[in-house]
Amino acid sequence: MNTTVRTLIAGSTALAGIAFASVAMAETYKIGITQNNVGVDSYQTTYEKAFIAAAEANADVEAVVLDAGGDVARQIAQVQDLIQQEVDAIIIWPTNGEAVIPAVREAHKAGIPVIVTNSNIAEPGFEFVKSFSGPDNITQGSRSAEIMCEKFTEMGIQDEAKVVQISGQPGYTTAIERQKGFDDRLPEVCPNVTIVETQPGDWNREKSQTVMEAFLVKYDDIDGVYAGDDNMGVGALNAAKAAGREGIIFVGATNFAVGYEAMEAGEYWGSIYQSPVDDAEAALKTALDVLNGVDVPFLNYFDTPKITQDNMSEFTKPVF
Amino acid sequence: MADERLKSLTSMLARHGILVAFILFMIGFTIANQRFLGLDNVLGVIRSSAILGVMALGVTFVVVSGNLDLSVGSMMSFSTIVVLDLHDKLGPSMAIPAMFAMTMALGAFIGFLVGYLKLNSLIVTLGMLSAIHGLTLTYSGGKNMDIVDKSGTWFSVFGQGAIFGIPVPVLMFGLLAVVLTVILAKTPFGRKVYAVGGNGTAATFSGIPRARVVFMTYIISSFCVATAGLIQASRSLGSQNTVGQGLELDVLAAVILGGASLLGGSGTVFKTVIGVLILGFIQNGLLLVGLQFYVQYVVTWVIIILAVWLDIAAKRGRLWSPIA
Q1: DSSP B187-217
Q2: What is the pTM of this model?
Q3: ipTM associated with this complex
Q4: Which A residues, 223 through 282, put their C-beta within 8 Å of a C-beta on chain B?
Q5: All structural domains of chain A
């Protein structure tokens, strides 16, 4: 008797819950995100925390936070899961700009808007995507070129300086775009500066240090190093310090705490300030704007300013 | 007389085909870029190879005993992150032994599973590859680990110091290679490792404690990994969580390149050192030659296959297989 009553009550509560949920659906958005590889670096770790915090702070958002662990196959499966769960929007941080396109198309076909965050997917996939929210990596590359050229001009070596470049992981869109931005912009601002060689450092400090050691053996004259991010830039700086080569201008991108410290110590000239918190919040805002029917540009960039030893006091030290 | 001399030369070649291959590559790269054999470059390459090399020394024991160790890459990340974290919390003189203890506990766990429970080493260490990676991430919360006071610590000596102009990592690599050569080639324990790897059943019937020998090989391997993590941490005084990711395959490549059989029972520490140096000098040589990066992957493979072929050809005394 008692149990029957309880079951009835439980049943009706569940029913009421379902009814309530379907009413609430109209206002609450369920947003799924599949990230590239949380934990591989502090940027992605901070991004995830900031995203969860932003989602929790917004009562209209219920977030499903997933991580592909750098594995394309797992990311594709996660997108399919999110489609099954009938989320309102999917945010994807592509593990690979090409390989995720079929999964993105599936979501598009299911009528779920897709927002790409941080690094864009390849162009054939653009038609299945509502918006890209993230840094403009080509602009970052060109701004790094400008920082380096301005410093060379100040030093008076803008007509003879030689630069080596350490790029990110081959095949990774961010790496390709930053390299392109740098390669295209440097000859425009400093036409007589030569990029003598480019080799990848795979976003890895140790790998970058090894690459820089080989550069130092190979070239007697290196005036500047451009690294695809500060992690690699500091690796290259360590190599130069160990070899006793002074006076090299180091410019990176994505200002890391180690890069910021090296700038404070006067060993590292400049970088591009890119906050993972801004990145995560911009992604969520873009998704919400799309869902609310606000007009969003296809390439929805957040600003990533130049930071050098001269203006670094305007920026707080990165947390990653 | 001349005939005899020729014979001894051929038998020398047969024993050291991989050494011949190594010398040939060195000559080739030197022709391509004069700076290749410069003292700075050679020391630089050996210093960068020391981390991989120290790990390969330990894995040689595991492979000779007929097992595999695929966990060394993520175990190295673990020890690097742990020692960097503890450096600021306990001070370097406590952090180093604590890190060695934690890393060797992982090695003991693997050794227990493979030795005493007789589980397949491929499966155990492949599982540990991701399990230890997860452990590292949990420990660090995914954040990069950095020593706060980078200029004021003697901890940097292991990765950046030099004694009489020779980098400390090179000395550690060399010292460990000598000690482990003696252990593997000259002690009863070393002979037991060969026996267990050559024929485990026969070894057991001969009264050799197979489980304990296998257990010990993993202890040695994890000791080497901890040493590698120490050098790594000291070299950059800060690290990502993924610092050792993928190294397990390079380590195995170096050990196999040195001529150790994956089936166990053969291989020497000295040949592993040559294997490590070949890999290190290939990577450096290709950078100095300035080949486009994408081509380097392919060329690396071609050189490795050439080296293995030369080694085998020297052993059987002819280029082609007689029974093909």
Answers
A1: SHHHHHHHHHHH-HHHHHHTT--HHHHHHHH
A2: 0.78
A3: 0.77
A4: 231, 234-235, 238, 242-243, 256-258
A5: 2-134+276-302 (3.40.50.2300), 137-273 (3.40.50.2300)
